[in-house]
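OP here, attaching both records as promised.
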Amino acid sequence: MHNVWGLHVYFYTGKLRCQGEEFSIAAGTASITPPNTDLEWEFPDHAPHYYVHFIPSASIHIEEGKQSEPLIWNFPVMNGPFEYFDSLVRDMEMIGATYQAEPLKASVCLWSLLWKISEGDVHQTKEPEKLPSSVQIALSYINQHYSTPIVIKELAKHSGVSHNYLILLFKEHFECTIEAYIRRRRCQQAQFLLRHSSLSIKSIAQAVGIPDINHFNKTIRRELGAAPSKIRGPAARRLGSPTRRIH
């Protein structure tokens, strides 16, 4: 990455090696990588993500006495996973849609996004419901891993309770099975991506953990009442590629 920073928003599970460290990638995470750095990714065959390459303005300086020194851009490499990262996707799409016609707007959006990510300021606005700690742990796990197969017994073990007890907790608090909750969460994310992103339907199916396109279509019809192609909004169809370089 010669002279450019990189911002990636991920919909898959993998690894990133940067500056001698290895970072785990999960759906809903974002990375900010510095320039002139060797980067190495491990990712599955189908790995949808958004990225922006950018160069901070060289004219910004910090005055220290009589010397003028360049501002050092210091961001964490890996951030998240963010439980509700829909706003990240919106901002990335905004950058992709405006960087040519309205470069200033795209730049402002980019810097706002960078600070939100680096400070962990991408949260759900509504106060979460009071839930048992084991259920909160399970929900966090589901939100981080819905793009991959989730084994209920492993989810229960991760939550610190038995398989049967976790089933009872989900029925008590959500009036559905764990499998139904996971399916609902995947469909909610798919609905958002269909309406607001330019990812292909195949990529969205992979990103939400339902890679079989026929099964994805049937699930979306059953859960949301319409085929993915019908849910896809006109704004999403108009958007171009989200791969951008911003100066």
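Record two, same layout:
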Amino acid sequence: MPDDKQPADEQPVAADEGDDSEEALEVSLRRLREHIDAFLNDYLEGKSKETVGTYRRSLNEFQRWFVQQNGGFRFRTDGVRRYKKYLMETRELSQVSVSTYLTAVRRLCQYLVDRGDLTENPATAVKGNRRPDRHTRQVLTETDIEALMETLDAGTRIGKRDRGIVFLMLRAGLAEIEIVRADVGDLEQTLMGWFLRVQGKGQKTKDQRVPLDPPVIEAVQTYLDAREDDLDPDSPLFVSHGHRSAGQRLNTRSVRSRINTHLKDAGIKRKGVTPHSLTHTAPLIWLNRGMDVEEVKNRMRHGTLDTTMIYFKKQGLLKRDPDELSEIEG
């Protein structure tokens, strides 16, 4: 007879998958959603919105797969392995995405262990894929950069804005999320030059400063001079100039869309070239100009020198033709 303290659809059940000694947990879709909501609200309390959003999207994928199993998933190791196989073979996700999705399931299972719903974590034995030792996105060549610059119409307010964004990504190494979070008051001028205080992915405060070389700050200031709104310190650094959303802070989707438009207009939108390619090109520009590797590491806010060395090994790619670069990147 089921324990009164535990819903019937969560009772450990005998299952024919996995080790016979491994306890199984069977839940309904409704109960799974309740577990996920509790996990996001309790286990991830205090985490950034971006982190919670990543877990939610990952677990949404798990829910979709769960429905396809018609009750055949019971939180056992073999079940998690089947989910990994689905991500790799059916969804054909990248190694990094598979690892991210499995991490979300592993943390959810650990939450169920901590609650006492599971005796052990069935996802612990299912490892994520090894992260690549090089970036899969292509970088831009010098020819690409020249073509991209020609698409930026410095005679319009939107053109000035897009030029400022491109310079921050391509020549300051900023990511999209750092750009959309930036306020006017985050710009700082010191005896050492101009800096922008940034709040990176997964961070809660703007506790890092990115140096802005003269061409970069010039591009940003040119755009700010063209703005018609009052520029108080809390104003977004980049805003929309559309009729319906004029003055509103740009979001990452808008930035990504604008950069993709310019990449297409420049004729350099090819496999592997994304808006992130601009950010990945910045350290190559610096290294090709002789900047010290340690300074590049600091500018890119890399946690370890190993990450910076990925770019160091790519020195010279910036000057190569796109066709040759495609062959190198495979």
